[in-house]
């Protein structure tokens, strides 16, 4: 798809998940004035920027990143990812990693894959998959993704440039 093939939007987009995540981030941090000072914004501007009814105030990407770093809250990122049908996983800093930690990470990843296989086999035992069975499969699969990404992050820490 090229930019010229994209049809212009007639209405302002409204992303309720993202709007809710922004509002909840501010509410849970409970010090909007301090955040506005850190972002070099006047009092009240941040609330206007996350209000979908405000046409001329919009929270910018760099401010959203700074907001997440200041609050330590990534629900905005999670909502953005969900809006695009993606998911996020936390990857810790593994700058120093031992062989044993790497091996444990690899084992954990394969244990999670085993959990996916067990859930799938149990669900298929009667020939169909019920909603609760699907949800267990999905949860096990997400846990295996997280374990795989942790393993990858640990291996990345070993790369010599």
Commentary on this structure:
Pfam families: Phage_CP76. The protein is mainly α and 161 residues long. It folds into two domains: 16-84; 99-158. It has helices at 16-29, 32-38, 45-49, 61-71, 75-83, 99-124, 131-156. The longest helix is centred in the last third of the chain and has 26 residues, at 99-124. The protein starts with 15 loop residues before the first helix and ends in a 5-residue tail after the last helix. The mean pLDDT is 88.
Summarize this structure briefly.
This protein has two domains: 69 residues; 60 residues. It is 61% helix and 0% strand.
List the SSEs and their pairings.
Layout: H1 16-29, H2 32-38, H3 45-49, H4 61-71, H5 75-83, H6 99-124, H7 131-156
Q: What is the end-to-end distance?
A: 35 Å
Mean pLDDT, all residues: 88
- Assign a percent range to the helix content: 55-70%
N-to-C series of helices and strands: HHHHHHH
Main sheet specs:
none
As a whole number of angstroms, the C-alpha radius of gyration is 21 Å
The total number of structural domains is 2
GO molecular function: DNA binding
